[in-house]
Predict the 3D structure of the following.
Amino acid sequence: MNNKPKIVVLGAGYAGLMTARRLTQTLAAEEADIVLVNKHNYHYETTWLHEVAAGTINPNQARFMLSDVVNPNRVRLVYDVVSEIKKDEKRVVLENGELTYDYLVIALGFETNTFGIKGMAENAYSIVDIDSSRLIRDHIEYQFAKYKTEENPDEDSLTILVGGAGFTGIEFVGELVERVPQLCKKYDIERSKVRIINVEAAPSILPMFDKDLVSYAMNSLENRGVEFRLDAKIQECTEDSFIIGEDNEEIKAGTIVWTGGVTGNSILGKSGFEITRGKVTVNGDMRAPGEEDIFILGDCAWVMNEAEGRPFPPTAQAALQHAKTCANNIRALLHNEPLENFYFDDKGTVASLGVTDGIGSIFNGTKLKGKSAATMKKVVDNRSLFMLGGTKILLKKGKIRPF
């Protein structure tokens, strides 16, 4: 009879996959059974999805098979969708079965948050996963092909509207300014006929960067054809437009993409966890409040920065560090040792503005602009690949080619 404790990890994003890998490194095979549950048989780099959506990289570059990086002799892979977590019964209900657990790690990622904007969920595309990103790429190209073949094409069909000027929105338009000239050449369409419009309710873009870097980013993107509509609240999203501002101005478009917000997985609320803005505010040791055996990581968790009285930013960098703390604490529980609290080692933030441009603030506030930032962004992306998949995946999928 198998009396080994069972550790079930839900989700193979940055936090979940890293947790499973670190558990195999910190625990001997006889110490625990490890199960990793994921909807797909692959992991995808969430921070690369804007490139897939714009069409500047192939979808397959942004993902790799779980079986290539997880030892099946150490981790049981279950490809299924989580329906509910029954905490009182220590049971996870899946679409095609169920699992019991002794320790549970919830790392189910994010869902789109439209903040109740009328019509947004129904009419806009969102960059959520590989499939949704590929759909955006295909739709944009379809608009070009349709424009070229129609006798009286709609001039607005070549307009691409992007709602939200946070990380994803700005990195997405940065890729679009690279992709649009390629599509114009392919379909013999004048570049001037294509509009890329970024709409943001706040007075500025990229709130995580200082004014100097924000100014550089805006100038760079505007010089390459991006139009910004700031301080412009989106009142409604119709099938082919945004209605914005107090005067209800309508901006028509053939492609509408919402990047303005995400929230934690809705399974959390359905399963009885206390939610704050879609996420669970976890304890310092990454456990859910009141739970001895449930850890919540990544986009599902608010981890408080006690010094500043607010949560740490929910980034891929943080998610990978959540995993380290979680794996160490599960090992500590198995060995009756004291648990550690999460410590965020902030290595900085870098945003791409296309293939050869970007901005960044790294280490002790060192600012980067232009090619140096773009190079650092590729270093960050490659580091993530290496941490999750090792040298094999880095060489196979990494951004190691020169500009």
Observations:
- The chain has a mean pLDDT of 95.
